[in-house]
């Protein structure tokens, strides 16, 4: 069996790792909500996405499926992960290159305090009041499972009027 090691840039995993390592945010639901609010604020201030992934409208608020799966199957180590390619009979070890954009780190450091000191379910309640999440869950029961994507256009329109 072959083992291949690769390095790649991954803004979402780098930012998630930064929140876990530097700011000690290790509770999965809280981590997901903080990623959502940081994404909203970054878009509002910079007219640019913090990362490319789309949020899904889950029961407890917006969730990034890739972060959820990584937490569930790998844990809190967002520096590296392994995958197995059965067709090639190969393990691939992917090392995430650290984010080097100081602007993003400074942004996170300037915003994080107002979120990290809040109770997890206060953040859930705040996320439930955001129009993009509400719109993506339209027609669903409050406890109904959904993987409906939150449309970027809805997020983009929301942040124009949103006051964090």
Strands in their spatial order, largest beta sheet: 1-5-4
Percentage beta strand: 15-25%
The end-to-end distance, rounded to whole angstroms, is: 51 Å
Structural class: alpha+beta
Biggest beta sheet summary:
3 strands, mixed
Tally of separate helices: 7
Rg estimate, integer Å: 17 Å
pLDDT < 50 runs, ≥5 residues? none
Helical content (DSSP H or I, runs of 4+): 40-55%
- Dominant shape: globular
Number of strands: 5
Average the pLDDT over all residues and give the rounded result: 96
Which series of helices and strands comes N to C?
A: EHHEEHEEHHHH
> How many individual domains?
1
Q: Can you tell me about this structure?
A:
There is one protein chain. The chain is an alpha+beta fold. It has seven helices and five strands. The protein has helices at 11-21, 28-46, 65-73, 102-116, 120-128, 131-136, 152-161, and strands at residues 2-9, 56-58, 61-63, 80-85, 90-97. Helix 2 (28-46) packs across helix 7 (152-161).
């Amino acid at each position: 069996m072959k083992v291949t090691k690769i390095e790649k840039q991954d803004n979402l995993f780098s930012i998630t790792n930064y929140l876990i390592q530097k700011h000690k945010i290790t509770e999965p639901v809280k981590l997901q909500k903080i990623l959502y609010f940081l994404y909203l604020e970054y878009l509002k201030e910079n007219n640019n996405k913090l990362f490319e992934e789309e949020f899904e409208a889950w029961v407890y608020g917006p969730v990034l499926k890739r972060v959820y799966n990584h937490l569930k199957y790998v844990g809190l180590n967002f520096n590296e992960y392994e995958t197995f390619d059965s067709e090639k009979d190969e393990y691939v070890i992917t090392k995430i290159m650290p984010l080097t954009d100081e602007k993003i780190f400074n942004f996170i450091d300037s915003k994080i305090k107002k979120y990290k000191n809040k109770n997890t379910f206060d953040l859930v309640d705040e996320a439930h009041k955001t129009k993009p999440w509400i719109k993506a869950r339209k027609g669903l029961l409050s406890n109904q499972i959904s993987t409906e994507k939150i449309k970027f256009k809805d997020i983009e329109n929301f942040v124009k009027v949103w006051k964090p």
